[in-house]
TrEMBL record:
It comes from Parascaris univalens (Nematode worm). PANTHER family: GROUNDHOG (HEDGEHOG-LIKE FAMILY)-RELATED (PTHR31967), NUCLEOTIDE-DIPHOSPHO-SUGAR TRANSFERASE DOMAIN-CONTAINING PROTEIN (PTHR31967:SF10). Residues 114-274 form the Nucleotide-diphospho-sugar transferase domain. This is Nucleotide-diphospho-sugar transferase domain-containing protein. InterPro entries: Nucl-diP-sugar_transferase. It comes from the Eukaryota.
Length: 275
């Protein structure tokens, strides 16, 4: 060090160990700031991981209740199918979805030939009896699955079971050579879907699967919603839904996302179109 007033100069350098300490201090400050965010992300990740793991364990333990053989052995289903000349439309519910189903049935009662082609599947006694009292002339099947009488929501084990049931039902119907509709009662019909959507006009000769869309623009226009769809029965359709069932048992995913993937590379020769 030299005196500045006498033409001297002064310099100061942080020792190397001091620089390291300063960096550690800054890192701690940053970590302290981001710690709540990181912890929230980790909590959400492990929570989703636990939910997915529980759902897969649940569906694998109870899959026998919705096995393909249960459809072939159900005489009530065969009898209901025999009474419907056109493509039947299937709707499934438990007691927690009865009210919305009743509202939907009232909504479409004036539409020609909608009630006539419906086959409603009730997973518990309460929903079956309620529907039969309200609409005694409808085809209502009491398909008792004890684990399915509770409320379920997207992502949990019972919802995955619902998707597996529907997929196996689709595979069964396609194996019979019966074209069919899958519908949901949470969709409000302003018009008769069976009149404004004619599969014969909307499907080309080599297309066999007709799905609803998440939206009408951009990427949403190519994404399957999975609430309402029409299936033209053939061997390709059987393979499509057999593969969907296999993946539902193996992967934690929604059926519409899996179907979208299968459609994208035309699994087993299947060709999809959109409503």
């Amino acid at each position: 060090m030299k005196d500045m007033g006498m033409g001297t100069s002064m310099s100061f350098r942080l020792p190397s160990n001091g620089l390291a300490l300063w960096r550690v201090f800054l890192m701690r400050v940053e970590l302290k700031f981001y710690q709540p965010i990181v912890l929230a992300i980790l909590f959400h990740f492990f929570r989703k991981l636990a939910i997915s793991n529980d759902a897969l364990i649940f569906i694998q333990q109870h899959q026998w209740q919705v096995d393909l053989s249960t459809f072939y052995n159900n005489t009530a289903l065969a009898e209901a199918l025999a009474t419907i000349d056109e493509s039947p439309a299937f709707l499934m519910m438990n007691k927690h979805a009865v009210n919305v189903t009743l509202n939907w049935l009232c909504n479409v009662v004036s539409f020609e030939n909608v009630h006539n082609r419906l086959i409603l599947i009730a997973f518990d006694t309460d929903s079956y009896e309620t529907l039969k009292r309200a609409w005694p002339n409808l085809h209502v099947l009491h398909w008792k699955i004890p684990i399915m009488d509770r409320r379920f929501s997207a992502g949990d084990g019972r919802y995955q079971m619902f998707q597996l049931f529907r997929s196996n039902l689709c595979a069964y119907l396609a194996s019979l050579g019966r074209d069919f509709w899958m519908i949901q009662s949470d969709t409000y019909w302003r018009e008769n879907l069976f009149e404004i959507v004619d599969p014969k006009l909307m499907l080309n000769d080599d297309e066999n699967l007709l799905f609803d869309q998440e939206g009408s623009d951009g990427l949403l226009a190519e994404m399957i919603a999975g609430g309402n769809y029409f299936i033209k029965a053939d061997r390709r359709s059987v393979l499509f839904f057999n593969e969907l069932s296999r993946r539902l048992l193996t992967y934690y995913s929604t059926d519409n996302n899996i179907m979208g993937g299968l459609c994208s590379y035309r699994y087993a020769g299947n060709k999809c179109s959109f409503i």
